[in-house]
Design goal:
heterodimer; A: about 450 residues; alpha+beta; N-terminal domain of TfIIb; Naphthalene 1,2-dioxygenase Alpha Subunit, Chain A, domain 1; 7-stranded antiparallel beta sheet; 3-stranded antiparallel beta sheet; globular; B: about 350 residues; alpha/beta; Ubiquitin-like (UB roll); Elongation Factor Tu (Ef-tu), domain 3; Rossmann fold; 6-stranded antiparallel beta sheet; 6 helices; about 35% strand
Chain lengths: ~450, ~350
């Protein structure tokens, strides 16, 4: 007689009565796997003015080190990791001509256009030459911003989508689909005469935590006491609740960006202006209509923000699994020099201090306040989401479905090993881990 | 008159290897003697691992041997090299490149992680390779398991992908009185250790193919398709359109629908058709076979590649149906499974 044991399913934890039950969570499992970001997408890399003629800069996106160089106005982007010993070429730029960049250590020299090893400074006849190289990344420069298509090494050139597929929905071409009777068509960074002004800085949290903040309609509570809200007497609700079966439109058009549009300031969302129990009431007077949408790989658009004819874009560009580059950009159409200087003046005097800092600084610290809950995975399993979280959950699903690849954990790259002594030394020197390469100072001065 | 024949083996990457085969000698044996990397496993004319296409010369089944090839396959020039004799100088084409065969099968130990009953007659078995044991495989390939307490060996395709290693997922059909089934139902426990070997088979996902992928699966023939679908999802570059047509005998034997639905959620490029041979059928499931539905609603792209896995009758019907719809026979890849007690 053998022991007879019936075959049973493994007991699974019961997570009933949750907005994000086990079934929902598995629908966005690819998103949960994307700690290092979605690869094979277009990301902002630099503002144009950060890369003047001849300059070389090193950055990191989705765990991929990238070096950019501008030659005769054109920008080239290559993997910033020499095939020889992995040195970052951007740490100490060495360029002998307009066609190549050389590694400053042993002189491995790569073509800017195709990344091939074209010579080795002190070993010009080696048989490696022409037989190896580094990955190149397509570059687009529009309205004062430099975008890079960050790809896996084997992503084919012919499959590279246009930049417009990774940028927000455009108006007026979508005005019929997504009417906006309360504000004029939002400009697009791809429009003629568009000017993009903004800032970017490193946030110390996972990019997903950051991204989900901007279109979470309950998060606006963090802005309750912001100066610009009260100086301009804006009605900014305590929160906005979904009151319709479809509060969000999922956009999956074949030839365009993939993401979601929220039906804000329609009967599908109800602003909450009072909490009697707590004695809270919004009594400001001026309506402040806006609408948020998000597209892959994580680009937020706030239409009609912070005022008419201006749109705010944000990106949360993954650097590692615990850092992202936070991009805050305002776009306006400026047809004349006068328009441009007026926009710049208002950007410097009003938007930068009161919006990008005063207002959005709250978002930055709110994201960092969530980071520890999510770092070791706890948050992804234990978060208790509620009705308003229909927005992040919809985003997680659409992102799981339309991403072009899940970035593998960075290996052999800056900040992939959290405990290395060189990282500790940099911290001790007061340098927080970040987006740009750590440049090597010239020691000849000693 | 016993002169040997010159045999040429042509791999898909253009590599050609030549050797001599004696009368009465099977071509596989002659190839392996010369270290020509031809995939093989059973060496008895059944597993189809050593499938090749005769493109020049004469070669036929050895006297007294039998092969699982059906007449239409033989008519196309397909041969199983382990039971094939060269009757003249001849050339065989292989559907894989010269590097594949060097991915030789190895033996390994694996722990049982989970045993889940998915349907009346299907069990999902999750294994994990033991410390120090490893092998690589291609999505679609299979492993062999020695059934504990017996000398019997059974073959199962991986439903998981190489990226999931050391975890391996198998979908196993329960047969009344079958040795594996009996062990699964009565003896298997979590943390049991199994002796396995692999990978085997030349039924696997072709690299870099961008044409539409048709996948037709009968019963646990779904396993290699799940592996291929997940591998395609993780592949770099634009993803091909995929159509999975999955059929089971009855409503009670349908399984893994949640897992399939998840793939549809994750992969907008994936279209799924479900069917049962006999009604009643739950909503969203047709009554009929998984073959007839292909090309029924919209014409098939003639450049499509097709992967078939299921019982011999289904494969035969699918091959005929697809060729009628204009698919080239070399773009149809099949894995028959023959249930063993």
């Amino acid at each position: 007689m053998s022991d007879i044991k019936p075959v049973r399913r493994r007991a699974s934890e019961s997570v009933e009565h949750r907005t994000n039950d086990e079934r929902t969570q598995s629908q966005y499992q690819p998103y949960k796997d994307a700690a290092w970001g979605f690869i094979n997408h277009w990301y902002p890399a630099l503002f144009s003015e950060e890369l003047p003629e001849g300059a070389v800069e090193g950055i990191q996106i989705c765990g991929v080190p990238i070096v950019l160089r501008r030659v005769d106005g054109k920008i080239y982007a290559l993997k910033d990791q020499c095939v020889h010993r992995g040195v970052r070429m951007s740490a100490k730029p060495m360029c002998f001509n307009k066609k190549t960049i050389s590694c400053w250590y042993h002189g491995f020299t790569f073509n800017l256009d195709d990344g091939k090893l074209s010579t080795i400074v002190a070993n010009p006849n080696d048989r490696l030459i022409g037989n190896t190289g580094v990955t190149t990344y397509p570059v687009e420069e529009v309205a004062g911003m430099v975008f890079v298509f960050v790809r896996q090494d084997d992503f084919p050139d012919e499959d590279i989508p246009p930049l417009s597929h990774d940028l927000p929905f455009r108006f007026p071409e979508n005005s019929e689909k997504f009417p906006h009777p309360l504000w004029p068509s939002a400009p697009s960074i791809l429009d003629n005469d568009a000017i993009a002004l903004g800032i970017h800085r490193t946030g110390q949290s996972n990019w997903r935590i950051a991204c989900e903040n901007g279109f979470d309609n309950a998060h606006i509570l963090v802005h309750k006491d912001n100066t610009i809200v009260h100086a301009l007497d804006w009605v900014l609700p305590l929160g906005i609740l979904p009151v319709h079966e479809e509060p969000i439109a999922i956009v999956e058009d074949e030839d365009g960006p993939k993401g979601l549009m929220q039906w804000l300031f329609t009967d599908r969302w109800q602003p909450v202006l009072e909490n009697e129990q707590l004695g809270l009431k919004i009594d400001n007077l001026k309506g402040r209509f806006y609408r948020t949408s998000v597209v892959l790989p994580g680009c937020l658009m706030v239409e009609n923000w912070p005022e008419e004819h201006v749109v705010q874009y944000e990106w949360y560009v993954p650097i590692t699994d615990d850092m992202y580059e936070y991009w805050e950009v305002m776009v306006r159409i400026c047809k004349s020099d006068e328009d441009r200087s007026k926009f710049k003046y208002r950007f410097d005097r009003v938007y930068t201090p009161l919006c990008l800092h005063g207002f959005n600084d709250c978002d930055l610290y709110a994201r960092e306040a969530m980071e520890e809950f999510y770092t070791d995975g706890t948050g992804w399993d234990d978060e208790q989401l509620v009705a308003t979280d229909v927005s992040p959950i919809s985003w997680r699903k659409v992102a799981s479905r339309w991403n072009r690849g899940i970035a593998k954990p960075g290996r052999g790259v800056t900040n992939s090993t959290k405990t290395s002594s060189i990282r500790m030394r940099r911290l001790a020197e007061g340098k927080a881990p970040g987006y740009f390469v750590e440049k090597i100072n010239d020691v000849n001065k000693f | 008159m016993s002169t040997s024949s010159k045999v040429t083996i042509s791999f898909s990457d253009g590599v050609e290897r030549q050797f001599f085969a004696l009368p009465g000698q099977n071509v596989l044996e002659a190839a392996l003697k010369e270290d020509v990397p031809v995939l093989h496993q059973c060496r008895s004319g059944s597993c189809s691992s050593c499938l090749a296409k005769l493109v020049e010369g004469k070669a036929d089944t050895l006297a007294g041997a039998s092969s699982t090839l059906i007449p239409s396959e033989k008519a196309q020039g397909l041969r199983l090299l382990c039971v094939t004799e060269a009757l003249s100088d001849c050339t065989f084409q292989l559907g894989y490149d010269s590097a594949v065969g060097t991915n030789q099968a190895t033996e390994a130990k694996a722990f049982v992680n989970a045993i889940d009953r998915l349907a009346d007659d299907v069990v999902r078995l999750e294994l994990e390779l033991a410390e120090g044991d490893w092998f690589e495989f291609r999505p679609g390939q299979f492993i062999q398991i020695k059934v504990p307490g017996t000398d019997a060996v059974r073959s199962y395709s991986m439903a998981s992908t190489p990226a999931d290693l050391p975890r391996i997922e198998l979908l196993i059909r329960l047969l009344p009185g079958g040795v594996m089934s009996t062990w699964l139902l009565e003896g298997a426990k979590i943390d049991d250790v199994l002796e396995i070997s692999g990978p085997y088979g030349q039924f696997f996902l072709k690299e870099g193919e961008k044409a539409p992928h048709i996948m037709i699966a009968g019963g646990t023939g779904l396993a290699p398709m799940m592996s291929m679908i997940d591998a395609l999802r993780m592949r770099s570059g634009r993803k091909p359109k995929m159509l999975l047509s999955f059929g089971c005998q009855t409503q009670g034997s349908l399984f893994h629908l949640d897992a399939i639905e998840l793939r549809q959620q994750w992969l907008p490029q994936l279209d799924v058709q479900l069917s049962v041979d006999r009604g009643p059928a739950p909503s969203g499931v047709r009554v009929g076979n998984p073959v007839e539905v292909i090309g029924a609603s919209e014409p098939l792209d003639p450049d499509s590649v097709a992967y078939l896995c299921g019982p011999p009758g289904m494969i035969d019907a699918a091959r005929r149906h697809l060729e009628q719809l204009g698919l080239a026979s070399e773009n149809i890849f099949a894995e028959q499974f023959v249930a063993s007690q």
